[in-house]
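Sharing in case it's useful to others searching the archive later.

Someone asked me privately for the predicted structure of Translocase inner membrane subunit 23-2, so I'm posting the question and my answer publicly. Question first, with the sequence:
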Amino acid sequence: MAFQPSPSNHNEGNNDQNRRLYNPYQDLQVPIQTLYKLPTSPEFLFQEEAFAQRRSWGENLTYYTGIGYLAGSVTGAGKGLVEGLRASEPGDTAKLRVNRILNASGHTGRRFGNRTGVIGLMYAGLESGMVAVRDRDDVVNSVVAGLGTGALYKAASGPRSAAVAGAIGGVVVGLAVTGKQLLKRYVPI
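And my answer, the predicted structure tokens:
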């Protein structure tokens, strides 16, 4: 018994343009014609998901934490490279210089990566929480999440440091969101 899509959800004439042909047996040299017509656009279980242009909270968490860790690690490794080069002494062998550079790069890269990964984790959690509470996805959520992230990150240093870090976080996120909107508007991608 073959699967037949219901006529209410599937209009064969319109969807042929948005589908690509697929033959799962093409590598086996089996003389079978193309069997399936797969959609080229994303499919959603519910219609509401198609209208939402937003990642889920789990995808957000993974994305911001990963991007933060990667950016911090690369930046820290670069800083460690410079520190390792400065710390080399005139009588060092090549192996000793390389070892010193690798140790400094690894140590500093790990430190920076962990810090920025935690910042990304806090930001993603706060932004997803704001979207859930306000039931809207706009710039306010991002800026408030930036304020909260900066304040939480420096909360142990005292209220003044937390307020300054919160203000910096809000300004950085505001600039990032503004830059993203300008890029969308003026740069054709």
